Amino acid sequence: MNNRAYCIKRISVIVLISALFIFKPNYCYADNQKILEVNSNKKWEIKFNKPIAVYTVYDGIQIKDDKNNVCELVFYFKDNGTRIVVENLDKFYQENRIYTLTVNNNVKDKSGKSLSKSKNIKFKINDKEEYNSSLNTKYPYEDTSDINIKDYPNLSNKVSIMGSSDLIVKNMGDYVLRQNKNPKISVDIYSLAKIFLEEGQAEGVRGDIAFCQSIKETGFFKYGGQVLPEQNNYAGIGALNNEPIGKGAWFKSPREGVRAQIQHLKGYATIKNLNRECVDPRYNILRNIGVSGTVPFWQDLNGKWAVPGKGYGEDIIYIYNKIKHLR
Q1: What percent of the chain is helix, strand and coil (3-state, nearest 5)?
Q2: Phi then psi for 314, rounded to 5 degrees?
Q3: In the chain, how many domains are there?
Q4: Residues 113, 171: one domain?
Q5: Domain boundary among 91, 125, 159
């Protein structure tokens, strides 16, 4: 049997820019690369010579800026795990900043073989282009078939923030663990999912979809953005991109953090009063500025909960549908 190495064959920019890997028996490594100039909404494509273990990319592929800030990434898996498209969760990189894309030896194939050396690509943002989102590429998942919008009608039909949950705890937790085996939370993932359902039911909010919102906000509870895991803040309440990390709201327990998120959602969706004592530090702000009741649907959160937030609500519903159809 040919005992060829598991190694990355190449990593390339989608727009005709490629970086070659150097191969050796049993291992692979890469030579130094010059700083590439790319667009601010750049997506990267990584190609492998054999299928990889999907969960390993979350520790094995990383992008940092020149101030050592880690970008939150979304991975789209293609061709049975031999091709990955990497996108910045914030959609845009900052102009005139230098970033480093690293593929390290935490990436493994399905037999457990890993890279022996990191591959680094440096790139600089030289312009600002409008982000063009597409639902034809997949959200991170082991399934390798493309997902088309017509497969899941709820992506085009608006979904209410208020209402009863229909996801189950097991599927909610299983979905997270398929993408991140070690969520950075102080309770187990199934307990957290249960809390979302309970707190959502108490206020009449879709707690199951609020859980999906937290998956998006935290990157499958890996964090790395403006919020620290110990804040128990699962939706970035009070966190702004231009402020220090950890500046957003802090909550004394996972349940309080979930309750605040549910209350904040209710504050957007309806003018009805809360059923429980308010723990959301920004709930009264919504009421005072006249926003309460103006955002009845998840898709209406675009540009409100997240700024600029294009596709924010649609991404949340996309995750919800992935869990709903989990097998």
Answers
A1: 30, 20, 50
A2: -65, -40
A3: 2
A4: no
A5: 125
Residue 131 lies in a domain: no
Q: Where are the alpha helices (DSSP H) in the chain?
A: 57-60, 169-179, 189-203, 207-218, 254-269, 283-288, 312-324
Pair 179, 272 in one domain: yes
CATH assignment at residue 90: 2.60.40.1220
Token pair, residue 267, equals 């504050």
pTM above 0.85, yes or no: no
Residue 22 CB-density burial (10 A; 0-12 exposed, 13-18 middle, 19+ buried): exposed
Q: In whole angstroms, what is the distance from residue 265 CA to residue 319 CA?
A: 17
- Of the candidates 237, 188, 247, the one whose C-alpha atom is nearest the C-alpha of residue 213 is 237
Rounded Cα gap, residues 270 and 160, in angstroms: 11
For residues 324 and 141, what is the distance between their CA atoms, to the nearest angstrom?
A: 13
Does 133 map to a domain?
A: no
Residue with tokens 């191969």: 23
pLDDT tens, residue by residue, 138-186: 223 333 222 232 333 343 478 999 999 999 999 999 999 999 999 999 9
**Residue where the block lists tokens 């500025």:** 289
Could you give the C-alpha distances from 139 to 28, 73, 143, 216, 290, in angstroms and in order? 28, 11, 10, 11, 35
4-32 tens-digit pLDDT: 444 444 433 333 333 333 222 233 333 34
Residues 145 and 133: their CA atoms lie apart, in Å, by 19
Tens-digit pLDDT profile for residues 252-283: 999 999 999 999 999 999 999 999 999 999 99
Q: Which residues contact 273 (CB under 8 A, 6 or more apart)?
A: none
Show the tokens assigned to 182: 């070690």
CA-to-CA separations, 298 to 26, 112, 228, 294, 320, in angstroms, rounded: 49, 40, 25, 11, 11
